[in-house]
Amino acid sequence: LVSPPLPPLPPTRHKGTVMHITVVGGGNSTPIFAALAKDAGHEVAILTRRPADWNKDDIGFVNEDLDYFPQAELRVGIDLVTDDPALCIPQTDLIFIAGLPIHHNPTVLARIRPHLDMQKKVFIGSICAYGGFNWVAAEALGPGNYSLFGTQLIPWCCGTLEYGRTGLVIGAKRLLRIATEDGRDSDGVKPILAKILKMPFLTDTDFIASTLWPNNPSLHPPILYGLFKDWDGKSPYDPDKVPTLIYKDLRTDSAVTLVEMDTDLCAIVAGLRGALPQNGHLVDNDFSMKACVMQNYEEQITCAWDTVSCIMSNKAFAKHRIPYTAIEGGVVPTLAHKFFETDLPFGLCTMKDIANMVGVAVPCIDKMILWNQKLIGKEYLTASGKIDGKHASECVLPSAFGLDAKTLEFGNRSRTANGAEKKQKT
Q: Could you give the CA distance from residue 262 to residue 271 in angstroms, rounded to a whole number?
C-alpha cells in the first residue's frame, strides 16, 4: 500500500539558521546527506520516484571512517519523503541532487522548474559537478535568481546497506572543493555545506575545473576498457576469471589505459590554460590522477608509489564493484549502468569536445569512446574527429551550448549574475 501524500513542509522558522533542504534522488548518497542535513538542524525533504520504499522517521548511515566522523552510525527522522515536487520545491532554500546518475539531471531539473520561485535565491547543486552541471542546469531552468553549485567530487566513497533507510560511508574526502559559478562562492553556499558535511576545510573551485578534474569518467572507462576492449558484446565470461572489485583488483591493461587517460586529461587542461590564463583553478592546480587521489584521501592510501598503487591501495575505494549480469554460460558486464551510460556522454564526450576546442589530440579518449559507443549502440564520435554522430544530442557538449574555449568558465548563463557583473576569477 502506498501511504497518502504527506503535507507540505511548514514555513522556515528561523530564517538564516534553519533552511528547507530538498535532496533529490534515492541512491547511495541520499540517506547520508539527508541525515547530515537534519543533524545540522535543517528541515529536510527527499524527492524520489520511490517514496513508498522510504521511512521518513528512520534514515541514516553506518560510518566506517571514524577519522572523518566519530560516530559509527547516525540515525534521524526527516520531515518529508515524496515523489511530488509541488510538496517540497516551492519552499526549498537548497536543492541537492545526490543519489542520481547525472544523465538524469536534465529531466529532473525540468520537473523541478515549474515549482521554483525564480525571484528567490535558491541554491541548486549536484553531488557531481562534472559533466557541465552548470551548462545543463542553466539550459533546463532558464533565467532566474537561483545560484548553482556542486561538489567537485562526491564527499565520500559510499554505498547502500538497506535501500530507503541506511547508507554506508566507506571513506570521506580529506579535501573537497565546491564549484560555484564565479569560482569564489559569492553567494555563500560553502559555509552551509561545511556544517552539513562536517567538513570545515571546504575550498573554492569553478565548474570548468570540476568538469576536467579526475573523476568517474577518468576512472571507470579506462579500467573497463582494459578489461573488456576485445569483448564482442555477447560472449559470457567465466565469473572466476574476471575481477569483481573495480579499483582494488586492477589488472595490467586497465592500469596502462588509466595512465594513458591521465596523460590525455592533463593535455586538455594544459591547452585550456592557454585560453584561460587568468583562471587560477585551472592554472594553479595539479590535475594528475595521483595528485587528485592523494589530496582527497591522504592516510587512507597505503601505497603512494604511483598512480596505479594510489588507486589500488585506497581504503575508500576498496569495496566498489563491477556490475555483471548472469547469462547462460557465465556473466557479462552490465551495460545498462552508469559506467557505460553516463561516463561516456557526460564525461568522455564532453572532454573530447573541449579537446577539439583547444586543438589537443586525445588518442586514449578517442579509442574509449569508439569502443563504448559500439557496445551501447550509439554513435557519438565519427570519422570527422568530432562528436557529431546521430546520437550526439544526448551528450553534454559545450560547443552545442554556443560556448568556446574563451567562454567555458562562465558557461551559458549571462555574464551577469543576479544583476551584478561577475568578477574575474583568481
A: 14
